[in-house]
Amino acid sequence: MDGSQTPTKPKLVLILLGPPGAGKGTQARMLETRFGLKQLSTGDLLRAAVAQGTAAGLAAKAVMDAGGLVSDDIVIAILRDRLAAGDLGRGVILDGFPRTEGQAIALDALLGEVGLRLDAAVALEVDDGEMVRRIAGRFTCKGCGEGYHDDFKPTREAGICDGCGGTEMVRRADDKAETVAARLDAYHIETGPLAAYYAAQGVLTRVDAMGEIGEISAELGCVVASVTAT
Ligand code: AMP
Predict the structure, then answer these.
(1) Paired strand residues for 158
(2) CA 70–ligand 1 middle distance (angstroms)
(3) Of 92, 196, 210, 212, which one has the greatest count of Cβ atoms within 10 A?
(4) pTM to 2 decimals?
(5) pLDDT tens digit string along 129-153?
(6) What residues line ligand 1, using a CB cutoff of 6 Å?
(7) Contact of 13 with 91, CB cutoff 8 Å
(8) Which residues carry out catalysis?
(9) Are β-strands 91-95 and 12-17 bridged in parallel, bridged antiparallel, or unpaired?
(10) Which DSSP symbol is given to 190?
(11) Is residue 223 within 8 Å of residue 124, measured between CB atoms?
(12) With bands split at pLDDT 50, 70 and 90, how would you rate the model's confidence at 7?
């Protein structure tokens, strides 16, 4: 470089760890807007594959309906395709990936393929009772994807999206009580230990996610700001 060129800033890579209902999706959407990042949710990518009837979607559907974890091979392939497609903004927030140690090990290679590396992992911590309460009441606007909750974040006018005025609200099939229990088991057995995995690498921040959405968002903002400053 001859000094006249400004090096392009490397894209940020942030992992959001946490059980279903911890608020990963909500927080990821807020970070997207504030920092120009892209939320990459393997749950969303899998639901899209199911809706499109792709081979991966067909293989994943029964496992997702039962609240289990889709095989590492399928999820890794789906994330690899998404990363390769580009449109990664100023960086990515991985929401719902990795969920197993195998995925965590694969992630470094996946990021390396597109010239990225992990900057930070945040564990959103909530207790099981709170998770069940949050999941039970949540719904989303089909039009714009804005998330709501019967008790904690209702729409201003019943049945009408505050953001886009849409009137079609959807509840996830796997948010029903029986499935939630299986999802929590999968979380505790497979995903919970990843906090220690990232703590050992010195990149983990733990955030108490029992509190108010705005306070949690502010804490996450500090994590993003601290890694972008280094
Ligand atoms: P989510 O929207 O993150 O709650 O994911 C919904 C469902 O998709 C999960 O219950 C799993 O069945 C599946 N899923 C999403 N991400 C992963 C992943 N990283 N590994 C395995 N299964 C996943």
Answers:
(1) none
(2) 7
(3) 92
(4) 0.86
(5) 888 888 888 899 999 988 899 988 8
(6) 20, 41-43, 46, 63-64, 67-70, 75, 96-97, 99, 103, 174, 183
(7) yes
(8) 24, 99, 138, 172, 183
(9) parallel
(10) I
(11) no
(12) low
Query: What is the CA(30)–ligand 1 centre distance, in A?
Result: 21
Structure token digits, residue 92: 């990515």
pLDDT at 6: 55
- Dump the DSSP string for 66-100: TT-PPPHHHHHHHHHHHHHT---TTEEEEES---S
Ligand 1 midpoint to CA 42 (Å): 6
| Mean pLDDT computed over 157-166 | 95
Q: Which residues pair with 43 in a beta bridge?
A: none
Contacts of 120 (CB under 8 A, 6+ apart): 13, 14, 15, 203, 204, 205, 223, 224, 226, 227
For residue 46, give the ligand 1 atom closest to its CA: 8
pLDDT digits (tens, 9 = 90+) for 66-94: 889 999 999 999 999 999 998 888 999 99
DSSP string, 102-159: HHHHHHHHHHHHTT----EEEEEE--HHHHHHHHHTEEEETTT--EEETTTB--SBTT
For the CA of 20, the closest atom of ligand 1 is 4
